[in-house]
Amino acid sequence: MKKTTLLNVFVRSLFIHAALNFKRMQNLGFAMAVIPVINQLGLTKKESQEFLTKHLQVFNTHPYFSAPIIGTVVRLEEENTSRDEAVDVHSIKRSLMASYAAIGDIFFWGALRPFIAIISVLLIYMGLVFAPIVYLFVYTPIHFWVRVKGFIEGYRQGKRGFEFIRSMDMPSLAVKLRWISLGVLMALIIWLSRNGGYCPFTTSHTIIVKIVAMTVVILCLFLIKKGISQISIIYGAVVAFIILSWTGWIH
C-alpha cells in the first residue's frame, strides 16, 4: 500500500465521528476512511460495492482507537487480494471494536481526561490564565500519538495489531491515574482549607446542597428503572425548579 494512500486513510479516520448516527454508529465514518483503499487495490465496480457494503455494517468503538482498527483492516483487505483463502475481516473488526471501546473509555474518559482537568483547575485557581491551553497541549498529543502509532502498528502487524494496544497496559495505567487524581484532590482541599482559614467545600450549606443533589440523582435513577421516560423526568424537574423558585427556596 502506498504511503500517500495510508496517509489519506489516516487523515480520514480523524473524522470518524463526523457522521455518527444512532442506527449504525460510526459506520459512515469508517467507510469514508477506507475509500482510498478501493483505488489502491484496483477493485471492479461490483467488488467496490461489496467492499463498501461490508464496511457499512455497524461499527462503534472509542474514537481514539478507530485508527488502529482501520490500520488492521486495511492490511487484512490488502492481504485478501493476494491469497486464495480470505480472512473474515468483519469478525476481526467486530471483536477489536468491542475491546478497544472498553479500554478507551476506561483510560481516556475515566482516568486521563479527569486527571488533566484536575491539574488544569488547580492551575486556574493559582491564577494561570493559560490553563485551558495547558490542558489541550498535554491531552491532545497523548491521544494523537495513540492514533498515529496505533494506525501504523495495526497496518504493520495486521491481525496482531492489538499487541501494541495490549503492550501499553492502559487499564493498569487508568487505576494509577485515578489514585493520583484522588491524591491531588485531597491535597487541593487541604491547601484551600489552610489558605484563608476556611474550606469552601466543607461549609454546612454546601454539604446540604450536595446531599440534596445526590438524592435527586438517585431518585432519577430509580424512576428510570421503574420505566419512566427520561423526557418526563426532565420536564418534571423543570416544573419543580420553577415552583421552588416561586416559593423562595431557590434564589
Blueprint of the fold:
Elements (H helix, E strand, L loop, with lengths): L2 H11 L13 H15 L3 H11 L10 H15 L8 H37 L5 H27 L4 H7 L1 H25 L9 H22 L4 H18 L4
Name its key features.
251 residues, mainly alpha, 2 domains, single chain
Detailed description of the structure:
The protein is an all-alpha fold. The mean pLDDT is 83. The chain folds into two domains: 3-190, no CATH class; 203-247, no CATH class. The radius of gyration is 24 Å and the shape is globular. It has ten helices and no strands. The longest helix is centred in the middle third of the chain and has 37 residues, at 89-125.
Query: What is the CA-atom radius of gyration, in angstroms?
Result: 24 Å
Using the alpha-carbon principal axes, give the shape. Answer: globular
Class inferred from helices and paired strands: mainly alpha
Number of strands: 0
Our measurement of the CA-to-CA distance between the termini, rounded to an integer number of angstroms, reads 64 Å
The average pLDDT value, as a whole number, equals 83
Portion in strands: under 5%
Task: Give a quick summary of the entry.
The chain has 251 residues and is an all-alpha fold. It contains 10 helices and no strands.
